[in-house]
Amino acid sequence: MQLFDLSGHTAVITGGNGGIGLSMARGLVKAGAHVAIWGRSESKNAAALGELTGLGKGEIGAFVCDVTSEDSIAAAMAATLDRFGQVDSCFANAGVGGGRALPEMTAEAWDATMAVNARGVALTYAHVTKHMIERGGGGKLLATSSGQSIMGTNRSSNYAASKAAVNGLTRGAAFELARYKITANAFLFGFYETDMTEAADPRFAEWMTKRIPLRRFGDHEGLEGLAVFFASAASDYITGQCLPVDGGLSIS
């Protein structure tokens, strides 16, 4: 048996139709997993489906899902189970930026960020773990967090707070679900080129690059192996961890 063969494994990736989520999907597909993409945009879902099909022996599905809506999550979960029969790992990756300075904060800005980045993860996990427990236990929960959850940056308090909530959720889930052999971990990503970072002030990217000890952005190819390792049995004894994946940024 190959160490990282994911044949027969089914993974859900929210926000898997672009950026970090799509990169992780590539790795999982290449390792033989079935992958269910959950994303809001039908056109981006279709493009991701086209890109991933044929990369491995696993099947690919793409389902419209808005993680701010529990009804939408429930529908995507039902469609995924109807297609694949089970979910073995869940990558809660869907997220938004939109950081604001505190003097400019509004209730709407705060709630909009929290709805996707924090509540969306919790509700996705609620539906996925119910299925995992009912089928007898076992599973992997992986969340996309951010180095900003443990580091201070300008004009990003609501974003940082939403990702800090993900870290707390990860630790709580790991403790609560260990009895069911379900693990939970989070990735505190540093600077990767995505649609979200492209919308940021270019000076932010320049500042970040100078602070990163490896002096470069994260590479999307490396995310493929990261996803496969954490979906595989090789990571079974790792749980409750919030792992910086940032080129050393968090220690600089």
Task: Spell out the blueprint of helices and strands.
Layout: E1 10-14, H1 19-30, E2 34-39, H2 42-52, E3 60-64, H3 70-84, E4 89-92, H4 107-134, E5 139-146, H5 157-177, E6 182-189, H6 195-198, H7 202-211, H8 220-231, E7 241-245
What is the structure about, briefly put?
Belongs to the short-chain dehydrogenases/reductases (SDR) family. By secondary structure, the chain is α/β, with parallel strands linked by helices. It is built from eight helices and seven strands, in the order E-H-E-H-E-H-E-H-E-H-E-H-H-H-E.
Word description of this protein:
By secondary structure, this protein is α/β, with parallel strands linked by helices. It has one domain: Rossmann fold (3-Layer(aba) Sandwich). Helices cover about 45% and strands about 15% of the residues. The protein is built from eight helices and seven strands, in the order βαβαβαβαβαβαααβ. Strands 3-2-1-4-5-6-7 form a seven-stranded parallel beta sheet, with helices on both faces. Strand 2, helix 2 and strand 3 form a beta-alpha-beta unit. Helix 1 packs across helix 8. The protein is globular, with a radius of gyration of 17 Å. The protein starts with 9 loop residues before the first strand and ends in a 7-residue tail after the last strand. The model has no long low-confidence stretch (mean pLDDT about 95).
- Please write the CATH class name: Alpha Beta
Estimate nothing, just give the exact number of structural domains. 1
Number of helical stretches of at least 4 residues: 8
Which homologous superfamily in CATH is the superfamily? NAD(P)-binding Rossmann-like Domain
Biggest β-sheet: count, sense, barrel? 7 strands, parallel
Average pLDDT over all residues: 94
Distance between the termini: 40 Å
Structural class: alpha/beta
Element string (H = helix, E = strand): EHEHEHEHEHEHHHE
Would you count the extended β strands for me? 7
The best one-word shape is globular
Strand content: 15-25%
- Please name the CATH topology: Rossmann fold
Helix fraction by DSSP (H/I, runs of at least 4): 40-55%
Strand order of the largest sheet: 3-2-1-4-5-6-7
CATH structural architecture:
3-Layer(aba) Sandwich
The assembly state of the depicted protein chains is single chain
What is the rounded Rg?
Answer: 17 Å
Model regions low in confidence, pLDDT < 50 over at least 5 residues? none
